């Protein structure tokens, strides 16, 4: 009986040891099952990948696409889409202007007339006249003078039309005789064939000429409408131009308002100087060329001089066309020698104008490169005809003045931001000087 308790104790110890082994084995199985679940792809986790062997080459990661592009290509792309946005904006703007072309040209003409007449209004106001009376007197005198000039040209052409027609026929006959006796060996049959071809061309295009005449009636109606719009716009600009400008400034964002407010008066001074200088130069051209062709015996010298004056408002092109018209009239009415002398007079006056009068009268404020003048006149003529050619150069001159001022203004503003602010007694002195200057 003494051995029974010892045996029972050893049996209990063995059972306890066996239970601990079973628990440990169960814990190991649980740990293995948890690891399998964590590496299962269905649970959203990636399977553990062993590292590559030491002999395998390293694979470089793909670079960022922006960093892979060359710097020049990135700059070109950035500039390209901005240029596309600007081109689209300009295209929409041109479409809008084309839709309301008559209104735009009338308003631009009113601006040019206002720039010509506004100094007279200011002078009358300094003499003591009220603003309304000074505006009315200036506008009435200006429009009456322009109307008289137009009436005089039409009247002179109508009065001399018969005489000019006879002289043109005589000139054509003289030209035919000269061709027959010239060294070019032109025969009578060739001249008759040319005349027959011209008559047939006119007869074949009768319908086109008739439709052009009907379109001419529409053009006359549109011209009268544009003249009325220009007259009313001129009256309001002369009377209330300052308030209109202040109202326009309210539409500009507050950050850009100081720069635009400073650029506006400079643009107006440039436009005024351009209009005054162009009128003076056109008058000099008309007077001297008119006197030259008058002493040469060319008919309708005075109407031709007025046409030269009006055509001079189209830079370069207008002077050439009007001068060529005077030479052609001299050729068909007075002969080759008179035409050559008229050409010499026109060229001499235009050379004096281009090299002396324009630089002296217009000055540096409205100086535009001749290439810019030619391109702007061509573009303006393509977009809006004669009116576009007239307003193209002043628009370029004003734009040049505004851009130059805004560039200098932004540069000065940047320098003021970078400059150190005064402190201490210096700040007090600067504040006093600023208040004194404002006072």
TrEMBL record:
Q: Where is the composition biased (Basic and acidic residues)?
A: 18-29
Q: Where in the cell is it found?
A: Cell membrane
A GO CC annotation recorded here is: plasma membrane
Acidic residues bias (residue ranges): 30-39
- Entry keyword annotation includes Magnesium: no
As recorded in UniProt, coiled-coil segments are none
Q: How does it sit in the membrane?
A: Multi-pass membrane protein
* Main subcellular localisation: membrane
Q: Where are the transmembrane segments?
A: 133-154, 217-239, 273-295, 301-321, 328-352, 372-398
Region annotation (Disordered) ranges: 18-57, 417-439
Keyword annotations from UniProtKB, A to Z: Cell membrane, Membrane, Transmembrane, Transmembrane helix, Transport
Question: Which one Pfam family would you cite for this protein?
Answer: AI-2E_transport
Question: Which InterPro entries does the protein's record reference?
Answer: AI-2E-like (IPR002549)
Q: Report the record's Gene Ontology biological process terms.
A: transmembrane transport
Q: Which family does it belong to?
A: Belongs to the autoinducer-2 exporter (AI-2E) (TC 2.A.86) family.
Q: Kindly provide the name given to this protein in its UniProt entry.
A: AI-2E family transporter
Upper lineage is: Bacteria, Bacillati, Actinomycetota, Actinomycetes, Kitasatosporales
